[in-house]
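Hi V.,

You were right to ask for the full record rather than a summary. Here it is.
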Amino acid sequence: MIYLCPICNKTLNQIEVECEKLHYWFAQLYRKRLWRIRYLNRYEYHFLSEDGFQQLQQQGPIILDEATHFEEFDPDTYSGITTSGNRVSIFER
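Predicted structure:
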């Protein structure tokens, strides 16, 4: 899975040790809602906080290929609860 770091905009294919800003950003979302989106005709995923997703929606219409949210995000396991009620990794498709 390829995704963009929401802080430095680097393209990553895993949680990279050298991206400490990303680890800190994830830690701030403990037990909050996290969004994973992918724009239409793009390969990389984007992670957004609930506030970030709301701001994106306020900018106007957006065309997404995928949008998934995770409740009660746990930055230690990089997992959250999906709408099916299961705790899954944010990196699972």
